[in-house]
# Entry
Amino acid sequence: MIDPDQLATLAAILRTGSFEGAARALNVTPSAISQRLRALEERLGTILVLRTQPAQATEAGQRLARHADDLALLENTLMRDLGLGGDRTRPTVRIAVNADSLATWVLPALAATPDLLFDLVIDDQDHSAELLRRGEVAAALTAASNPVQGATAHAIGALAYRATCAPAFRDCWFPGGITADTLSRAPALTFNSKDRLQADWAQALTGRPVTLPTHHIASSHAFVEAALLGLGWGMNPEHLIADHLARGALVDLAPDHPLLTPLHWQVSRLHATLLAPLTAAVRRAAKAALTPA
# Structure
């Protein structure tokens, strides 16, 4: 068995980024933090923390830190089931969300569950299920409707995207309309290499794959700003651009062709009881903000 104090020390170092921060969090001396970590590394025969500023975990350290978070969640659930108050320490839960959901509707759900601390992993909805499958997160917003092994999936609606750009950009690059040819020449905006929204929309509209010249901008708000400045066109969430469309700062390239991205909330059954309030809050926030699937 791994010493729980040593495990908690590792988690505190990585959470605070320093040995001093961990000492303050655990109310012990920095010397005790160093001794606990050294004992744990010696027992396991591997380095767990890189002594950098801030401190960083090795791969083994990351896995042990996730294990520590899982144990804290399970202990919290047990204490609640037994009707015991415990020390009222809020457990940290690691969840995967896509950037556009975080920028538009997820934060109210997190704010509605004050008994938890959140460690958000930002990943594309088409890939986040893999994080849940590997046990790196306790819950995830995914495009996948089939639950990963050991998890439960809840369909929560679809995030609606609009192909938008500045009016001057449209007039320059699409004077005769949207075609495969004009799309192959007009600069597009892409979040990162995992982002397929622009390519999928272009193929759905034109009936064939289109190679898009693109800027890579990994920020939902900068994505909108880039479109406003005429840098390119891109798929933006309706909620994020409604005001810009209303005042004409952005135009919808194809109003009759939105792109709906279904989302599912998948949560590990191991932590489902403790995360039930979060699941309820996510479903409420999604119902208010998303398009029914």
Summary: The chain has twelve helices and eleven strands.
